[in-house]
Amino acid sequence: MSTPAPAIEAVELGKSYGTGAKAVHALTDLSFTVEPGTVFGLLGPNGAGKSTTVRILTTLSRPDAGHARVHGIDVVQQPANVRQLIGYVSQKPGFDPVATGLENLILQGRIHGAPARDARSRAAGLLERFDLTGPGRRLAGTWSGGMQRKLDVAMGLMHRPRVLFLDEPTTGLDPQARLELWAEIARLAREDGLTVLLTTHYLEEADHLAARLAIVDAGRVVAAGTPDQLKSALGGDTIRAGLVRQSDAGRARDVIGAIPGAGAVFAEGGALHARVADGAAVLPAVLAALEAAGIELASVGVARPSLDDVYLHHAGRSFREADRLDDREAALL
Questions:
Q1: Residue 14's closest CA among 221, 165, 195?
Q2: Residues 195-221: pLDDT tens digits?
Q3: Which residues partner with 240 through β-bridges?
Q4: Using only C-alpha atoms, what is the Rg of the chain?
Q5: Contact at 8 Å (CB) between 163 and 84?
Q6: Contacts of 274 (CB under 8 A, 6+ apart)
Q7: Is 62:76 a contact under the CB 8 Å cutoff?
Q8: Rounded to two decimals, what is the model's pTM?
Q9: Out of 3.10.180.10, 3.40.50.2000, 3.40.50.300, 3.90.1170.30, which CATH number does the structure's domain 8-228 have?
Q10: Continuous segment of H or E residues that includes residue 264
Q11: CATH code, 236-304
């Protein structure tokens, strides 16, 4: 049996904004593939290049280098054909707040060429699926944030796409609304066979939803695989130590790094992350060495590797630190 072609294929994508010394390199040789019927996550901090990647894949922007295909169709050479296959939900709301939920969905269906009766039937079915039938006849601008985000996703599904792009789908939602949307996204792939590509800067979202993911930093893929594969590849444990005095960070890093069994040690502000083979065995030595050096701890703990540890290992900085980008640059990318 032949292996199905990728639903999405990005090959060495490059994209820059501006020219000369002031140019911002949004993407550099970015490559990944997405198998049909799966949820794939592009995980990275603000400004990593995730939205730029999605804009290229959805034909809203052209790459400066490389190429991309959706179900074998080139996004630059045949953009109209690609648009027939995809749904796109951007970071910003796409609904009309002074129209009802039902009206928004019907209009979306009509824009895609559906007859009025078919558009109404499809809209009613999606409202029921997303538990929005009751609110569906109220103005969408009066809905809660979670309900509005569900409406955006439903609008992206009106024309029955084969691939759905979700750009930061749960930003700004409360925890309950986020969990509800997670359940719907997972169901789209599991029950409908839809391919979903989502961008996110929430580590737990990528870990929970994505069958596979690519971690993006500064426009490059620094690691790719299943969440479990990426975490297991690190092996060992992570000791996280919070310091009472941030000024002790450099000295504490040297002290921990000299302990047998301690691997790479990263400092971020007033906290240290140390990779160790066996956390339970090494932690007492860490505590004793820091105490002998007169370095006071505010907190300390041992944990199995997380996606934050994976990012730290491959990018050389923590996810939280990388997320602190200039607002202008982050909005651009």
A1: 221
A2: 999 999 888 999 999 999 999 998 999
A3: 273, 301
A4: 23
A5: no
A6: 238, 239, 240, 241, 256, 257, 262, 263, 264, 265, 266, 286
A7: yes
A8: 0.84
A9: 3.40.50.300
A10: strand 262-268
A11: 3.30.70.100
